[in-house]
Amino acid sequence: LTLFILFVCFWTYCYSANYVTSWVGNTFGGGDKWIQLSVEGMYVSPDGTLFLNSFWDEGGREAGIYKNGDVIGLCEDLHGWNRGGGEVVTATSEYIFVAMTQAGMQTSGDYPPPGTSWYCVRRYNLAGQTAP
């Protein structure tokens, strides 16, 4: 037992690693700005605006808008109510087009029945607000 304790002490002393921890994975780290956790679709406009789409983001930015290393915004109403983003996003000089999923719900209204999913394309203005 004494030999084992000496070995552990020697190993710990000789091979202890010096390290530094840092923030990895999200430039902004909280607040109103964050980078969505995954990307399935990406479009870069001629002016360098980046539009990203993902199936799910814990913070609700399934479709994000970025420019010059900064968060510009998100496409609204894609989070919750059994909604999610998708694999495709594109834009024109007026609109953003985002692939999305609407899964069924136990409610009346404009939702598919339970067990059914709609796969849709939703249109937004360039600020991320739904457009008719």
How does this structure look, described?
The protein has 132 residues and is mostly beta strands. The protein has one helix at 2-14; strands at 41-44, 50-53, 63-67, 70-74, 83-84, 89-91, 95-103, 117-125. Strand 6 and strand 7 form a beta hairpin. 10% of the residues lie in helices and 31% in strands. The chain is flat and about 75 Å long. The strands form two sheets. Strands 1-2-3-4 form a four-stranded antiparallel β-sheet, with no helix packed on it. Strands 5, 6, 7 and 8 form a four-stranded antiparallel β-sheet that branches.
Tally of contiguous helical segments? 1
- The low-confidence parts are none
Shape designation = flat
Structural class: mainly beta
Main sheet: which strands, in order across?
1-2-3-4
